[in-house]
Specification:
The chain contains eleven helices and 32 strands. By secondary structure, the protein is of the alpha+beta class. It has three domains: about 170 residues, no CATH class; about 220 residues, no CATH class; about 280 residues.
């Protein structure tokens, strides 16, 4: 009786690490955070959509069962779209507002590699010249900051496009920028499952202990997959049991537990150039009498790869490919013990360079190592081709110069010990397998001194490859070959894919786990005037909600004055909105304007009038509906699915500092405001100080973002039941305000409470991102403005930290 491996039920480990997404259509979004608070808002909305190992494993099992039942055809009615999320070191630091490594990580280890990033490690990995970071499309470490990597995988192109569009909108709402997007797709027809050179890919992936079922007869192998070794899960997922060679699971920070380090590389392939080179080298070998007369380009290319196009191993099928043998195409039941010199499968072939299996010798005179010795070097690959195919052996839809290649993704617990070691110490190392140089002497059985084996010629420049072959006299001869590079690195990122509980922790600005309970927030807005009760500025609600964890309250979205607490006993209180939460703060009169946090954060969903709102863009008090002793009304602007709307709400003051909030009118589109014609999103309002309720009309500067650029316009709102609005002046650039010089965006204004219309001037704090400044605006024609105090960090506000 077999038992289901426990890791299949994990709701902590993200999908794709152990349970591959296995989708034909993939898009990877490389993301840059504009500010941490908005990025956390984005993450809160995204986290419930991230796939888990349990979800993906269950789907894959059902899909495989359905395909077997249909005779091998994919079940068209069984589809899913998966999302996986990872962060770079800088991304983790920005979201958590702390260094993920309070003390320097061990020198030379995988944690140091993660902190440094792939651009700084490029030279050691052979990414120089045309492959150097300065030529990358993403991840160069300087001008292309990447904070997060979002992988989206779907069964159909239509599903993928819909998912990508939804994520683009969600990112735009929170000012998360898409630095680069790479699409990839499984090749069609006879090319299915192959990379662009035409060889079947992904055959040699390891099994995982605790996830894959062991074979009863060979417990070290996966049941039903002879030759596929079961590797300890801790080689791919941090903190789990691993191979003794790899060190204790406790070596990782607590935040790394149940997560995996990810490598994403865009590898461009020059397919015509590569195959032309194969033909050229075949001619050289034939001239040297180093290959059979019957050898073809397919024969030589198969030896360079280690497998034929179908996936059949060369060591078992030495003469020709066997494309009609499904068993051979997925065969892993072999090693290289009986081919120590590489006469059948060259020592420098891609297969032996990346996974030597049993057969690797420390020196030629020592017995071959067992395969288990190399368990700690394995990686979990999840690559997908990109671009239209081209194949010299058959006419393809893509031209020879079209961009194409492999979107390479792999997972491991240690970047240095696994990916980097394979790349630098095996693939890019001429002296691997090691110690084969005869030092100018002729070893037994060889006709000439034995040179180094050479680099992997499939993926990189390999100027000195040793082609070994047996001559008529039975001795091993050596023919040197020189290969140019036809695979080029055009982008690379090191990232970390955290557990689901760490994702929830990052939503709260910390690198510690949060349990599986929700983090507040409901979908769907109210259409009636249900009341909630606020005490001391916080709303009480019958729904149990987890307490928001402490985070900084900036970038600030909006400050709303508590109606009956303006300049009361020398203090003014405000609700400070940031992301999906709000806190109560106060600012004192006087030259210091001392501020303090009165009450900690509460969720927006604790306000009954704000149900269905994930983030407030801005408030605008209804000018003739402000009653500090009773009910005050406000228009609340917010964005949903990329479209801004507004609603009418009220706050009623009660005794003992109690406030009741009510939704007075449900959401409407901005088109209801004639003065906002052409506006994409209203960001903030600034009342014209000497034009409030003058002649039954109030004037405002409206700051808005349209076509990605913030501008402002002047509008007026009339008193009365209809509150007629008029655009008084067309849009102008922020540069028209001398006090806003250097800013490309204003998040919100806060009036300095005791400096309004004093001597004909009104002063304001202007908040933009992580900083604020102080300005003044004069009464009268032209309303001259000036900068009073230059930018400072919002850390100077004790109430916001």
């Amino acid at each position: 009786m077999t038992t289901e491996p426990s890791l299949r039920d994990s709701e902590e480990i993200q999908g794709d690490i152990l349970a591959g997404f296995r989708k034909d259509n993939v898009s990877v979004l490389f993301l840059k955070f504009d500010d941490a608070a908005r990025a956390r808002d984005w993450l809160r909305k995204l986290t419930p959509q991230i796939s888990t190992t349990r979800e993906v494993a269950a789907f894959n099992a059902a899909f495989s069962e359905a395909r077997q039942a249909s005779g091998g055809d994919d079940p068209r009615t069984l589809t899913a779209t998966w999302l996986g999320l990872s962060f770079t070191y800088e991304g983790l630091r920005m979201l958590s507002a702390t260094d993920p490594f309070p003390t320097a990580p061990p020198v030379g280890g995988g944690l140091e590699a993660f902190k440094e990033g792939s651009a700084r490690r490029a030279g050691a990995l052979g990414d120089t010249g045309d492959n150097s970071p300065e030529n990358w499309l993403f991840g160069n470490g300087r001008t292309q900051a990447v904070h997060a990597v979002l992988k989206i995988s779907a069964d159909t192109e239509r599903d993928l496009q819909a998912a990508v569009e939804a994520q683009r909108i969600a990112a735009a709402e929170c000012r998360v920028l898409i630095a680069y997007q790479q699409n990839a797709q499984t090749l069609l027809g006879s090319r299915r499952g192959k990379e662009h050179f035409g060889f079947k890919d992904g055959i040699s992936e390891p099994g995982v202990k605790g996830f894959d079922q062991p074979d009863p007869a060979k417990p070290e192998e996966v049941e039903g997959h002879p030759g596929t070794r079961l590797i300890p899960a801790g080689e791919f997922v941090c903190g789990l049991e691993n191979d003794p060679f790899s060190g204790p699971p406790s070596q990782y920070p607590e935040w790394a537990r149940n997560g995996s380090f990810q490598v994403v590389r865009r590898l461009a392939q020059d397919v015509p150039g590569w195959w032309s080179q194969v033909a050229l080298k075949l001619r050289e070998l034939k001239q040297a009498k180093a290959v059979p007369d019957t050898a073809t380009t397919e024969w030589l290319a198969a030896r360079m790869v280690g497998r034929w196009r179908s996936g059949a191993p060369v060591c078992k099928h030495q003469s020709t490919d066997v494309p009609n043998n499904p068993g051979a195409a997925s065969d892993n039941d072999f090693d290289f013990r009986d081919d120590p010199e590489g006469l059948v499968t060259p020592l420098w072939s891609h297969l032996r360079k990346t996974s030597p299996r049993a057969g690797l010798q420390e020196t030629p005179d020592k017995p071959a190592l067992d395969a288990g010795v190399l368990d700690g070097r394995r990686i979990m690959r999840r690559g997908t081709p990109y671009g239209a195919p081209f194949d010299p052996a058959s006419e393809g839809p893509g031209g020879p110069d079209d961009p194409r290649g492999l979107l390479f993704i792999c997972y491991q617990a240690d970047l240095q010990r696994q990916f980097e070691f394979i790349q630098a110490d095996w693939m890019d190392q001429p002296n691997f397998p090691p110690n084969r140089d005869s030092g100018g002497t002729v070893p037994p059985g060889h006709a000439d001194p034995r040179p180094l084996p050479g680099k992997d010629p499939v993926t990189q420049e390999a100027p000195d490859v040793d082609w070994e072959h047996r001559g008529p006299d039975g001795l091993i001869n050596h023919t040197p070959l020189s290969f140019q590079q036809f695979v080029r690195t055009t982008g690379s990122v090191y990232a970390f894919m955290p557990s689901l509980s760490i994702l929830r922790g990052l939503c709260e600005g910390r690198l510690t786990p949060v349990g599986s309970q929700g983090t507040g927030g409901q979908t769907g807005g109210q259409t009636g005037g249900q009341g909630g009760t606020q005490t001391g500025g916080q709303t009480t609600d019958s729904r149990p909600q987890p307490t928001p964890q402490p985070v900084k309250a900036y970038p600030c979205d909006e400050f709303v004055g508590v109606p009956d607490q303006y300049r009361r006993a020398g203090q003014s209180q405000y609700w400070a909105f940031h992301g999906d939460r709000c806190r109560l703060v106060s600012v004192a009169d006087g030259p210091a304007h001392t501020d303090r946090k009165v009450e900690d954060d509460t969720w927006l969903t604790d306000w009954s009038c704000l149900q269905g709102i994930g983030r407030v863009d801005c408030f605008l008090p209804v000018p003739d509906q402000q009653d500090p002793a009773g009910k005050s009304r406000y228009w609340v602007f917010h964005s949903t699915a990329g479209r801004q709307q507004y609603r009418l709400v009220s706050v009623t003051c009660g005794s003992g500092g109690r406030y009741t909030t009510t939704l007075e009118r449900p959401d409407r589109d901005l088109t209801s405001w004639g003065s906002l014609s052409g506006v994409g999103q209203v960001d903030c309002w600034l009342p014209v100080p000497d034009q409030q309720r003058v002649g039954g009309k109030s004037w405002y500067w409206c700051f808005h973002t349209t076509a990605g650029r913030q501008q402002y316009r002047l509008i007026s709102i009339a008193d009365g039941s209809s509150h007629t609005d008029v655009r008084e002046r067309t849009d102008r650039e922020l540069s028209q305000w001398s006090s806003l010089n250097g800013l490309d965006r204003v998040d919100c204004f806060l009036a300095v409470p005791d400096r309004q219309r004093v001597g004909g001037n009104s002063e304001y704090w202007v908040f933009s991102g992580q900083n604020y400044r102080r300005i003044s605006v004069a009464d009268g024609s032209g309303h001259p403005d000036r900068l009073i105090a230059a930018d400072r960090s919002c850390d100077a506000w004790a109430s916001l930290c």
